[in-house]
Amino acid sequence: MLKSKKRVTMLLDKGIGLRSQRDLLDTAAPYITQVKIGWGIGNVLPEEILKEKIALYREVGIIVSPGGTALEKAILEDKIDQFSLWLRESGFDAVEVSNGVVKLDEDEKCDLIRDFNKKGFIVLSEVGSKDPLRDHSISIKDRVEATRAELDAGSQKVIVEAREGGKGIGFFDKSGSVISHKISEFLECVDWRDIIFEAPLKNQQVFFIKKIGVDVNLGNIAHDEILSLETLRRGLRGDTLKISG
Amino acid sequence: MLKSKKRVTMLLDKGIGLRSQRDLLDTAAPYITQVKIGWGIGNVLPEEILKEKIALYREVGIIVSPGGTALEKAILEDKIDQFSLWLRESGFDAVEVSNGVVKLDEDEKCDLIRDFNKKGFIVLSEVGSKDPLRDHSISIKDRVEATRAELDAGSQKVIVEAREGGKGIGFFDKSGSVISHKISEFLECVDWRDIIFEAPLKNQQVFFIKKIGVDVNLGNIAHDEILSLETLRRGLRGDTLKISG
Amino acid sequence: MLKSKKRVTMLLDKGIGLRSQRDLLDTAAPYITQVKIGWGIGNVLPEEILKEKIALYREVGIIVSPGGTALEKAILEDKIDQFSLWLRESGFDAVEVSNGVVKLDEDEKCDLIRDFNKKGFIVLSEVGSKDPLRDHSISIKDRVEATRAELDAGSQKVIVEAREGGKGIGFFDKSGSVISHKISEFLECVDWRDIIFEAPLKNQQVFFIKKIGVDVNLGNIAHDEILSLETLRRGLRGDTLKISG
């Protein structure tokens, strides 16, 4: 179960081709826990490529979900049933429930989490807005409450939004630097094992490894940064050389 | 014909290998209208790889030109005939006429456009200097006049220079942000359908899609951003989720 | 011998898969002198992949070393003999001796250079700290003395540290701009042919080519920038169009 796992590394797959994906699996499969096929990338990939992509990951035990935006699009268009069918036909075993753009109050979000659980999917949820202004206005208290409610509803991990770029969102400022005191406050109220921190930039990964430990759950890792992150976790890169992992 | 096309997506190919190119075509071929093999990359690739690269694109109906710099080098060295021969032997069906570095007045540039048209090539032209200072000194009036003259001479689309990096050039400031009022002024005098905006950065792509529409012609898209751009056009990414394309 | 070579291009391989590596060699093998498998990436790659990776490079005459951090880890753990064995079993023909993180005085560093020479490896050494504050406190005089001592001890080239990112380290400021006067001072006292400048960013590569010449030795070049660097050296990109190489 994803719920009990530490050291989760979540890859952000932006639609890399199958040769490139095989390269990635040959070199780094054991270091990838879960893959998010970013936002609506799964909807523009040719169907047969998408199916083979998901199958290749799942063969080696990697969990696969589409991006939260794919679900949000379905919510906007009132097509959740079709979306669920598409998940199943494509081979996804996980789904991410987010409200980064659409308005969805916590009760509705938790209902969705419960619904997808009942349908047999591994559910992750994401807290945060894709709009930097709105995102920075979410208080720590609200983040904590949403996190707890979503875990109670059956989300296996709660993801802290940072987007692909990692700047100006979540616990990061415009330049991508970490706003450390916000994370400290947040971690006083939640268990880090329940959280996946999106941390696409190296300075962010280093921060979390030093602050929380080598087993911290990290997400939105680019496919060509998976090995680098593993070296950071193991103290095999200058930034963490004196830390053993 | 490229001239009448909307929603042109021009890929910047920096010399990706053939396996990577096949991955790209498997996942994204329908979303690529035209490829520019950047600057003089075509001159340093092994000849047989270049020919196969061009052939692979053309087989699926994608137009292929070398970068404008390749022609500018030939102009500097007074080797335009050899350059034309190389174009043909390599399999290019298009050519880009630019004066980003070499001095070439508008009459000479339009003569070149006419010459390459006569030789049977699809011609695109590019307006702008690769030197940020010189580029920012080109007035909107001059840009408009150059654009009109080059379209009249037979250029199928006029490209607005932004380089690979997208910063400090064309309608972008040093940080890559869009200088919106310049674009508004420019678009009062030209038809957006005749223009390809080089827009390598996501914020730039989002700007143009919101300002002009999902069919705006965009260029200098990296090979690993083609799918992402398509999701932006279709409202499948947070930035454009509420826009349908 | 690497010692007498000019125009060294040192690739930073972050663990690209074998398909991607074959793509690279098909398109750019003649432009790569030497490969550094970054920091401890060699330690997290599956053993058989690492061996095949090294063999593929060496088959076409490219020199291969692990990153300096791999050796520094071995120094910290007092496992230099095991490290040497691993080098040999994996197929490396070169080693990089650095003290970017561990404390190692110049005498000890030069002893290590001599030791690896005796063991039959091509030895490169690196001057600089991975910590920006410490790195910027190294005087030019100290850099020059270290460089001379290490060349005397048998280092074939001395690398100026700039890390993968190229910012805030060595002769670069926080934004990656070149601190030109420091390089001028340094080059008054050492022969540029003995130095490899790590220069991952294009503006840095352009600077060195214009300042020192098209044959300058450059390092930490990403795999997808090898062709671009070659075009810069040959005056086939806007930035260096009027320079012939």
TrEMBL record, chains A, B, C:
| This protein's UniProt keywords | Lyase
UniProt lineage: Archaea, Methanobacteriati, Methanobacteriota, Stenosarchaea group, Methanomicrobia
Listed PANTHER family: PROTEIN HEAT-STRESS-ASSOCIATED 32, PTHR48413
A Pfam family found in this protein is: ComA
Known EC number(s)?
Answer: 4.4.1.19
Task: Please identify the protein, giving its name as recorded.
Answer: (2R)-phospho-3-sulfolactate synthase
| Family classification | Belongs to the phosphosulfolactate synthase family.
Cite the GO molecular-function annotations of the record. phosphosulfolactate synthase activity
Which of the seven top EC classes does this enzyme belong to?
A: lyase
Gene3D superfamilies given in the database record: Aldolase class I (3.20.20.70)
